[in-house]
Amino acid sequence: MEQFVFIILLLFIGIALQRMNPPEDFAKSLNFFVIYVSLPSTVLLQIPKITFDLSLIAIILTPWLLVPFVVVAVMALTRHHPQNVRAALLLVIPLGNTSFLGIPLITALLGEKALGYLMMYDQLGTFLILSLYGAAVIARYETGIFHPKMVLKKLLLFPPFGFLLFALAFGQLPQPMLPYIQNLSGTLVPLALISVGYSLRLKGNFDYALLSKALALKLLLMPLLAFGFLSALGVSPLPLKTAVLESGMPSMITAGALAIAAGFAPELSAALVGYGLLISLVTLPLMAKLLAMFC
Asked: Is residue 94 within 8 Å of 129, Cβ to Cβ?
């Protein structure tokens, strides 16, 4: 409970900083440190602790299997809406905030033992989907051009992904290095959550009915589908809970930013991220309690 209160406090610190005349590109600076230092350090600590089995494969497959369902659902939801609205939902709904928000929330709800599974879901699921599927959506609805070489370059140069491959190949670091890596990893939660709170936006002119349906799809139906898939495979409790909660994370801020930059219903995109974040602070703990009852 104390960890969850701390998460909310950090989010509100980020929100408060919006009104304090912060330096230009404040959030980008925080994100830069998190992506290049905090996340790689966490990957190096947590990935060697994973047990490689069917559960791990199922976790990695889960976000990929959810994408086609979301695409079909979005197509149905937006059949009477403009193309830019459809593009916004196609980009923002499948991609969850599985690292910046996922790491502190799942640590609070499931404990640190879940972090290795979370990293695999995030890096081999969410991040790759953002890079491949996200680029394809932007190409389809904005430029009409898909650049495979550029996507591959971004994949290989993204620090947490590179450190994930390193950790998978070489395992745990030498013991003398671990306390220093732990200190760097400890910066992730406060910096990431302050950045998320600072980026939170709620105001705008958009279709509230569509927003409600999209949030239900993101925060309720996606984790329900993940639970059905993982239960059918007999995945063990901790990885199952981790993947279900990851599937129910609110929309990724980066996906929202990309949608806004591309002109895909900017106010709706920002609202999906902002309202999704606030509602998830209720839905995710409730989901964790239900999973504890059934798993």
From this structure: yes
Residue 293: how many other CB atoms lie within 10 Å: 6
Radius of gyration of the chain measured on its C-alpha atoms = 18
Q: Would 105 be classed as within a structural domain?
A: yes
pLDDT in tens, 93-152: 999 999 889 999 999 999 999 999 999 999 999 988 988 888 888 888 876 666 777 777
Domain-embedded: residue 201: no
Domain CATH code at residue 73: 1.20.1530
Handedness of CA 126, 131, 137, 141 (dihedral sign): positive
* Cα–Cα distance list, 68 to 30, 89, 129, 292 (Å): 33, 13, 12, 28
Give the position of tokens 């996340």: 39
Residue whose tokens read 């904005």: 142
Please tell me the pTM assigned to this model. 0.89
